[in-house]
Amino acid sequence: MNTISLASLNVVLEKLEEGVLFLDERRNVVAINPAAAQMIGRKHDEIVGKLCPSLFPGTGCAHACGQSGKCSLMSADIRQGKKLVQDIVVARPDGALVPLHMWATALPAGGSLAHCAVVLRNLTREAQLEEMAGQRMRLGNLVGHSRVMQSLFREILLAAASEANVLVTGESGVGKELVAQAIHDNSDRAKKPYLQVHCAALPEHLLEAELFGHSRGAFTGAATAREGRFEAADGGTLLLDEIGEVPLGIQVKLLRVLQEREVVRLGENHPRKVDVRIIAATHRDLPGMVKSGEFRADLYYRLRVLPLRVPPLRERREDVPLLAATILSGLAGHYRRDDISLSPQAMDALLGYGWPGNVRELSNALEYALVHADGDILRPQHFPVELGSAMPHPAGHEGRSMAPAISSVRGEVPLIRYYRGPAAENEKELILAKLSEAGGNKSAAAEKLGMSRTTLWKRLKRYGLEG
């Protein structure tokens, strides 16, 4: 059997779009391909011989690697063929921020060159990669392809790569808790606890015990000692939801925890060290509360090291069809109604409505319509009455509409279809029409259809149109 020469392997490595670093057992770089050098922003000779963590300063991956003394991407699972992936953001020497997908692969034992290989994929080029196409519209459970959401996704990844406190602001229903979850899931703390405390749901004495814990007999009903959420989240992330509702007395204690990284249980006088990443969220005007004396200025500035604002739905109306498709897909599975679809007239109403309750209200409206629908198509009359002012047609009217109509099928990417009248309602005809408009360019046609090239290829294959 013919063997591949080392020169041939080098040619392949040099042509790869992915970056590859080969490490020895001490995590020193022994070889690197040009793509990796370009992503890191250094020359070949400036990388080879350096410790791998030193090339990714400030990232969660480097932090974990430095603490353990071992490659944080290597584990027993790697030896079994599994892949542990991390998303990091690298600050290059030229000041550019490069988001990277990173994973490691073990090399055969006994090799004289390297112990493992670290692979890098530049996420800024994901639009050119078929397998990454869907990720442009999603980060965790957050969905959106609008410019403001793409900017938010980038800020989330930047926040996830750091250990700084984050303050998430936005109106009720925009998904602030989803932002916090995405930060945790993309951080080095992802495998550690993620806990939430809804600060507005508990009276002051119970909130204090919930956050900091208590000793036995600290107050009436405290039959046993109990750790608080700070201790329970040690090593992980704690979301303080509705931080604007915290009383001033507890704000002082929160400030101490953030400064000293230790908590004192109610009824005790000795501190306990904690290592917790804090994310706070609120819909309140905290700067205004600081001016009025309702919120401590020192706590505010401790929390807002990295401020993130989640835009309301009215500022990203172009995301409504995608959000509706995603929500309907989940509802279809929950209610076991796989063929549920949304009429163009109903979509007109969704696009014309102001959504004061944001994504939460959209989700509730779609579930309301699904429950009240007597068939497989959700029409304007099936939605709550408050959407009536946004309906451009009388209930039941099936005239022409330029709004996108969506259908939800479990297990597939929802298709966003743009109708121009009854003749175009057939999916096959619509795809042919968009291909014709695009001059046969599948990438352009896929963009017009609101789907990835992979999804379009699957539709073409289904209808026997591959050629």
- The chain-level structural class is alpha/beta
Q: Strand order within the widest sheet?
A: 2-1-5-4-3
Mean residue pLDDT: 79
Total helical elements:
18
Amino- and carboxy-terminal Cα gap? 37 Å
Shape: flat
Rg, Å, rounded = 26 Å
Q: What portion of residues is helical? A: 25-40%
Strand count, sense and barrel status of the largest sheet are: 5 strands, antiparallel
Low-confidence stretches: 126-135, 392-425
Give me the CATH fold name of the largest domain.
Answer: Rossmann fold
- Total number of domains: 3
Q: Could you tell me the number of beta strands?
A: 20
* Residue share in β-strands: 15-25%
| CATH class category label of the largest domain | Alpha Beta
- Superfamily at the CATH H level of the largest domain? P-loop containing nucleotide triphosphate hydrolases
The CATH architecture of the largest domain would be 3-Layer(aba) Sandwich
What key phrases describe this protein's structure?
Beta-Lactamase; Rossmann fold; Helicase, Ruva Protein, domain 3; 5-stranded antiparallel β-sheet; 5-stranded parallel β-sheet
